[in-house]
Amino acid sequence: MGSLIRLLASLVRSGVCLVLAGMGIIGCSTCPSGGPPPLADAPTLIQTGYQAVEPSADKGLPDALAMPAPIPPNGRPQQILAVSGGVAGVPFTAGVLVGWTKIGTRPMFDQVTGISSGSLVGAYAFVGPKYDAQMQEMILTVNTGNLIKFRPLCCMLFDGAFGSGKPAECLIRRAYDDCYMDDLRKAYAEGRRFFVGTMNLETRRLAVWDIGAIASSGRPDANELVRKVLLAAVSWPGAVPPVAFDVEVNGRCYREEHCDAGSVAMVLPPIGPMSGCPAGSDVYVLASRKLYSDPVCVRKSAFCRLKPCITAFFEALTRADISRVHSLCMLCGARFHLLALPQEYHGEPPSITNLYPKEAGKLFETGYQAGVSGPCWRLTPPGAEPGEAAVPHDGRGIQICR
Hints:
two-stranded antiparallel sheet; disordered N terminus; single chain; eight-stranded mixed β-sheet; 10 strands; 12 helices; alpha/beta; globular
């Protein structure tokens, strides 16, 4: 019996190896011709010093981190909005914007950045409150069927994905029509900017798109190109095919494939000279998820143990990117503002296969109430408030199992 089990195990391992080898061969044979384009040289960065902050270890950290560094002005202060990725909490961020408009204190943003689903909310936030009703309708009615059509067998054979992104393509075409594109161009002509991040599959690096510049480029396909970038921003790798862009570099043609950038960034920081923003600017970060997830019981299975690890990865990336934005504000002398899904919020967590509208109304109302109440911005980065830091275990309380 033991020999039979070992033989079966060997056959299974051999079969897995053959499948993986076949996938590698197929992947290489279907790569775009010409290979990936050469990477652009990184810009030379000037090292700038800043005064060290040495707060009291017990209670001074939040206050110290909430104060921008005193740096001389380097341009007109701006109003900047960064909308995070995270499809599960999109109705929350949309609700915040609508509530913020309601109380009349929402600024007309000079710059908006968006990652993943945050790019769709950011697209509406950029052109102004005029599109609040349209944004609310889309967010409260969208479901999984509006974004992806699962056809595992067919799509895996021909597209290398579990489903088709055609529903999302149709949704984006309806939501961002030619009238929206006209308003996008007007905003760009006023000197305002909207940036969206995607991930280049071959380089596995973040790509940043100036959406207003594309819309105002005069290209005959400018509107469609904007929609393609927005589609790429919400194209989950593996779930739907990536979006292909034909590019020319140094006289050679290449094909780039772009997808959702959530695995390399969850918040896109302000874009400007030397990766900064003018002193005195207000930088608002809307996070569509909690900074720290609730404790849950994990069942004894491989999949159940893997799921919280994936969730923890995205949460950690979100916190790291938010902290990066805060550091940038400190260096530039900008004011940092953060609003995340409240820790006390409890609801059924949506997933790719189970999106809205069941939970959308509750999430939207939570965001709306946060918006009409101020909003009540947090001025410190994740990890700076009491109870957020990791406490070392000294072994006390650990029982010896007999």
